């Protein structure tokens, strides 16, 4: 195995650090958006993404007691209630 070394001046190191930071921040924000981690009340689609399940599975879990909120025909799921239900359901 060959070792490769790069010599960077202070400005290049700063630019590289900023680029890596920006890349990581963008990826973390995308994951948060994709998983709706910052939201308490989730749509059906967000709930399926959060749980990594299909919509059919979500429907079955609702039949088995997974709590959902319906206000004027709009369905939402409370992420905290989901976590509690999963904890109790798996005990």
Automatic annotation (TrEMBL):
Signal peptide: none annotated. Residues 41-86 form the Helix-turn-helix domain. It holds the Pfam family HTH_17. InterPro entries: DNA-bd_dom_put_sf (IPR009061), HTH_17 (IPR041657), SinI_DNA-bd (IPR010093), WH-like_DNA-bd_sf (IPR036388). This is Helix-turn-helix domain-containing protein. It comes from Enterococcus diestrammenae.
């Amino acid at each position: 195995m060959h070792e490769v070394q790069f010599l960077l001046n202070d400005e290049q190191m700063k630019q590289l650090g900023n680029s890596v930071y920006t890349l990581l921040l963008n990826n973390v924000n995308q994951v948060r958006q994709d998983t709706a981690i910052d939201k308490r009340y989730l749509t059906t689609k967000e709930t399926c993404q959060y749980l990594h399940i299909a919509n059919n599975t979500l429907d079955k879990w609702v039949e088995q007691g997974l709590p959902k909120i319906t206000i004027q025909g709009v369905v939402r799921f409370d992420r905290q209630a989901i976590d509690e239900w999963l904890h109790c359901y798996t005990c």
